[in-house]
Amino acid sequence: MQCSHYMIRKLELNREHFRAIIYYNFQKKLSQQECLAELLSIVGNEAPNQSTFSRCLSDDPRVDRHVTYRVISKTSIQKNLHEELGVRKSVSCWLPHLLSEEQKAARVNWCQKPLDRLNSGNSKNVYSIVSGDESWICCYEPENKRQSAVWVFQGEEKPTKVIRSRSVSKKMAATFKITVTADWYTTIFLPKPKKQGKDHTPYSPDLSPTDFFTFPKIKNRLGGQRFQSPEEAVDAFKNAVLDLPANEWNKAHADVY
């Protein structure tokens, strides 16, 4: 008798069983009324009422329930963006002018000409190229943010620094093989027969090593130093140029090709 009572209790249906039956009938494409009628025919009065039956169907997850970024953890966002998708935030590059397709094609053609003429930089004629440029040398050139960087331990306050402007006192420095003076320019340079220079595509950057190597590198070395006169600043500029090792010069010229 005890065993029979145990089997009866074991076969009693609970709420989860009813939900499983409702789900099974729903997958069979039966309507709500058909599902309820089948339950009534099987369990009779033990079947859930109409409201309970409707509630079981209405609380199922919706197919198109959108998940917004507000319910995703920050670590999950970082993982999805950087590890899974491989994206990173990048600052837009500032361009002085938006080139047209014709200007882009002209720049490519212009760059291809010296490469073909100099065998992609392997020709010895590369060493015959003499470039020159000029730049203002100030008596005081402030340090950039990278030069002002210092090591700070955890808990220490970040150091502050007053922004200084360039000094008004300055002098033009030119990097040529010889010093360009008025006498040399009028008596030697102008009487010589002129050769047509190479054309330069519009809105293109300077390709002279002095523009992208010499001047920025020397000015970084002179940053933070204060000179008493423009002549002293130019002398420091000359000494800094002479102190540059040969391997850095070679690398700068090799980067052109």
Can you describe this structure?
This protein is mainly alpha-helical and 257 residues long. The chain has 3 domains: 2-58, Arc Repressor Mutant, subunit A (Orthogonal Bundle); 99-128; 130-254, no CATH class. Helices cover 45% and strands 5% of the residues. The chain is built from 10 helices and 2 strands; from the N terminus they run ααααααββαααα. A two-stranded antiparallel ribbon has the order 1-2. Helix 2 crosses helix 3 and helix 8 packs across helix 9 (230-243). The longest helix has 17 residues, at 101-117. The N and C termini lie far apart (99 Å). Residues 1-10 have low confidence and may be disordered.
Structural class, by secondary structure, is mainly alpha
The low-pLDDT segments are 1-10
- DSSP helical segment count: 10
Largest sheet strand order: 1-2
Identify the overall geometry. elongated
Question: Distance between the terminal alpha carbons, to the nearest Å?
Answer: 99 Å
Strand content: under 5%
Integer tally of domains: 3
Order of helices and strands: HHHHHHEEHHHH
C-alpha Rg, in Å?
40 Å
Residues in helices, as a percent range: 40-55%
Biggest beta sheet attributes? 2 strands, antiparallel
* Residue-averaged pLDDT: 72
How many E-type strands?
2
Key phrases:
single chain; 257 residues; mainly alpha; two-stranded antiparallel ribbon
Q: Short description, anyone?
A:
The chain is mostly helical. The chain has helices at residues 2-10, 15-27, 32-43, 50-58, 74-84, 101-117, 182-189, 209-222, 230-243, 246-254; strands at 133-138, 170-175. It has three domains: 2-58, Arc Repressor Mutant, subunit A, CATH 1.10.10; 99-128; 130-254, no CATH class.
